Amino acid sequence: MANRPVQTRMPGGVSLDRWFQRPKGRAGNGTGGVKGQANKRADRDVRYVPFYLSFWNIPGREMICLERPRMDRDCRMIVLAAGQGTRMKSGKAKVLHSIMGRPIIRIVMDVIKEAGFGRPIVVVGHQADAVKAAGGEEADFVLQEEQAGTGHAVRLASERLIDYEGIVGVLYGDTPLVEATLLLEMFNQHLRGGAACTIATTLIENPRGYGRVLRDESGRVLEVVEEKDASAEQRAVREVLGGLFFFDATLLKAALASLDTRNALGEYCLPHVIKWFSSQGMKVEAFRVYPPESIMGVNTRAELSHATDVIRRRLLQRWMEAGVSIVDVASTFVGFDVVLEADATIYPFTCIEGKSTICEGATIGPFAQVIDTFVGRRARVWHSVVEGSRIGDGATVGPFSHIRPGSDIQAGVRIGNFAEVKGSNIGPGTKINHHCYIGDADIGEGVNIGAGVVTVNYDGKTKYRTRIGDRAFVGCNVNLVAPVAVGEKAYVAAGSTITEDVPQEALGIARERQVNKEGWVTKKGIG
Known about the structure:
Elements: E1 75-81, E2 98-99, E3 102-103, H1 104-115, E4 121-124, H2 128-135, E5 140-143, H3 150-158, E6 167-172, H4 180-193, E7 197-203, E8 212-215, E9 221-225, H5 232-235, E10 239-248, H6 249-257, H7 273-279, E11 284-288, H8 301-321, E12 325-326, E13 332-334, E14 339-340, E15 345-346, E16 350-353, E17 357-358, E18 363-364, E19 368-371, E20 374-375, E21 380-381, E22 385-387, E23 390-391, E24 396-397, E25 402-403, E26 408-409, E27 414-415, E28 420-422, E29 425-426, E30 431-432, E31 437-439, E32 441-443, E33 448-449, E34 454-456, E35 466-468, E36 473-474, E37 479-481, E38 484-486, E39 491-492, E40 497-498, E41 507-508, H9 520-524
Parallel strand pairs: 1-4, 1-6, 4-5, 7-11, 12-15, 13-16, 14-17, 15-18, 16-19, 17-20, 18-21, 19-22, 20-23, 21-24, 22-25, 23-26, 24-27, 25-28, 26-29, 27-30, 28-31, 29-32, 30-33, 32-35, 33-36, 34-37, 35-38, 36-39, 37-40, 39-41
Antiparallel strand pairs: 2-3, 6-10, 7-10, 8-9
Helix pairs in contact: 1-4, 3-6
């Protein structure tokens, strides 16, 4: 098509040539090729290389952030999150599936916020209320009651933008690997290129399932063909469409009006607007993305697993660059909301989740799971599970121990192997050795808890607390039947079942006196 001004009139009498004229010379960028011909690399490929050091949340440290490209025009993002995702084989909407403890839709929303695009419009449909809850309050939601395609969804969202004349971005809600740096770079490319529409594309070896990007001999983008509508020749094209677009708002509304359902899907498909833009002589810019996974959707459990691995490695890379030692990246899991301080060491087969903080010099793992827990400086947790608790400076937990929610393990405490602590406060320097159960207890400073000690805290109806004073000594195999108290510097003899308080500096003994019966074995004829 010749390079000429477009004279089509928009609603309100505004001519399109006021908005865009195709520049002289070669339009578009990326690979060349007629419909279905093998794509050829052009010299104007736009690439995106992920820059993982985007932002931190490290207490006491300045924020490290990537300088954002300047945005001199307004942009509103539309997120498409209405689909069910049947290939996930799940009763849960696709965007509600979690990656590193965070729903996919929440990850996408956070990326938009990080990029600075402001309050997005999210189109919801399947399990709408749950998706809204997962998306948070920093969005406007539009309900797509009839699942009539991506074009229909954008049309519904655009009704919220009737008087808006800026840039509209569209991002599929199942693309958790998109990063803020990619959004910003593509947005600025859209502004610099003077395009009516900019689409994210990539080259993949096996393009099955994706829409193919078709170009003319000069490399100009002509249209996007869905696989079900593509010929065998078109299916051989390796350049595919990703789930990210930028449009001029006014032009987008006109393009959406051109959509129909005459296709194999029987839906209003957003990618089909590309053909309308091209047919009107307007410039369609292709933003080539590398690696391809950055804009790929999550449609199956296998793709969910792959996306989890990519994000997991990104997070670990950030922490290693911030001074954390990750001994084995392949077997370590650190969630989005976790904070790791410099010189912490994470050993293999460790999972740190929720709002956990691991302080300077602490060691976690191997084989540890830490959930919603604060671990102090130089503390150690190994071969153990810690949930919803606090581990003080220099304390050690494990191996093979379980710290249950509501526990405060103070500085210098030692929790031995095969111990369980639940809802208890353990004072500084106290030792709780192997095979103990300490539940609903308040234990003072410097206490010795021998092997096999049990706080008997439950009578079948009510939980009761046990209190042990500073520097008390509780011998092995003791049952402390709550509610009961052991005073400061008191001793409890091994093998005792204590049902009454033991006063300060007293010795509590509660066991039968030993009796030896001479010759008993011979008399019984056992030996």
